[in-house]
Amino acid sequence: MATSLVSALAQDNLQPTFKNIPTSSRVAPIDLSIRCLPLNVPVGKMFDLFEGFDAAIDACRSPYGLADAIGMMTAIAGAKGRSAGFEKAIYVIQAGDEDISKVGVSADPLKRRQELQGAHYLPLTIYGVVFCPTRKSVTIEQSVLQAAAEGGTRLMGEWVSASPDTVLRKVLEIARDGDFPVCDGKTYLANMIARTRALARHNTKHGISYRANR
Length: 214
Known about the structure:
The protein is of the alpha+beta class. The longest helix has 21 residues, at 185-205. It has helices at residues 2-10, 24-27, 53-60, 66-79, 109-117, 137-150, 164-177, 185-205; strands spanning 34-36, 45-47, 89-95, 101-106, 124-131, 159-160. It has a four-stranded antiparallel beta sheet, sandwiched between helices. The chain has a two-stranded antiparallel sheet with strand order 1-2. A hairpin with an 8-residue loop joins β1 and β2. Helices cover 43% and strands 14% of the residues. The protein has one domain.
């Protein structure tokens, strides 16, 4: 399902789902400054939000790799028999062409947009998605909403009276200031694949094997 969705996105069949995809993200990987994760996340790379900030925003706004990343995230959560407390993504949604945005946390931002659309009169589009593997996604989301409340731009619930670009930048600024490692969907997927391969090598080296529960 995820693969077919990525193919559809590449053909722009689901273009209305996303908002003004950066042209650069369609033709080649964006050159990002990256840094190694802390020791508690042994395999992976994240954005260096002190450099290449605009490039990080463009990457988080590209749908390519997003569906596969979400597919892996939900599969892992399902295998663990839970979704609460596991890694989730921070999404920014725009209502129509208005400077009205929603920031939220979900294991499946695509599905979440569909759920929200059923109760909204304006077309909703995903402006950007940020993955936060250290489970700090809720912390970032709440910090964004608190900043909006203090600035007088918070509306009902998780909606704010601000452009989606402003909200997405605030998400990344809070991640930078809190030193929370974040990345786009394509990088998240690559990190998870690398982590899985590293674990497989470790298990092979130490003769560890697993059997499915019966």
